[in-house]
Amino acid sequence: MKKNLLIKYLLNFTSSETKRCCFHGLDGNLLQIQAESIGIPLIQQEMPNDMQGYEDNFKSAVSKLKSEGIKGMVFGDIYLDEHKDWVERVCNDIGIIAIEPLWNHPTEDLITEFINVGFKSAIISAKADLFSEESMGRIIDHNFVNELLQKKICLCGENGEFHTFVVDGPIFKKEIIIKESQALLIDGFWKHWSLDIKQVETKMR
Q1: 200: which strand partners?
Q2: What number of other Cβ atoms are within 10 A of residue 69's Cβ?
Q3: pLDDT of residue 171
Q4: Residue 149 has what pLDDT?
Q5: Between the CA of residue 22 and those of 27, 43, 45, 61, what are the distances in Å?
Q6: Can you tell me the distance from the alpha carbon of 128 to that of 156, in angstroms, rounded to the nearest whole number?
Q7: What is the pLDDT of residue 3?
Q8: CA 156 to chain centroid
Q9: What is the residue-wise DSSP string for 40-58?
Q10: Strand ranges in 79-119 using DSSP code E only, listed in sequence order
């Protein structure tokens, strides 16, 4: 948006079994509420829970959008080369442009600007060896950033240290308010805390 790009769709991939985001476990319904609060249509593509065929599913979903005139796709990678290499290769295969507006920007600059312009983001998942149960649902602010600096944790969670759910900001028409949630300790690929959001409400900004 800031770079004069016309954002026509948001794209997310969910498990066909759990209906949750494949990578972060967030309920797909919450992402739908988020998209409606921003005012951009969301496309949710289901895929097997074991993530088999992810690349093929990705290419299929994006190719359909290309047929509607989509020329590029925006990603949020900052410094992980393997992520950037993958999206550039796959987008090249499809015939669209991979746009990486955050690439190589200092993480402290990014998170500081994110907070200062008025975005609010709640922590919904975090590695249990780095964060406590009390971190779940916490809104990222400058105090949180200072704590991460002291612990030498990536300020943007680029290595999967934590994941967030943006609930408000300058592009939102409605703020999302988490009314009921429960912190769960999950012993999966790695032990992590996960916030099971059970109820939200929205209000006009």
Answers
A1: 178
A2: 7
A3: 96
A4: 98
A5: 10, 14, 10, 15
A6: 17
A7: 66
A8: 11
A9: --EEEEEE-TT-TTHHHHH
A10: 97-99
Residue 15, strand partner residues: 47
Helix (H) or strand (E) holding 159: none
8 Å CB contact between 73 and 41:
no
Strand 174-187 and strand 191-204: the pairing is antiparallel
Instruction: Give the three-class secondary structure for 19.
Output: coil
The parts of the chain modelled with pLDDT lower than 50 are 1
Q: Residue 117's CB: how many other CB atoms inside 10 A?
A: 11
d(CA 198, CA 180): 5
SS3 assignment, position 139: strand
Domains of the chain, earliest start first: 1-104 (3.40.50.620), 106-205 (3.90.1490.10)
Q: How far is CA 70 from CA 7, 34, 63, 126, 128, in A?
A: 9, 22, 9, 34, 39
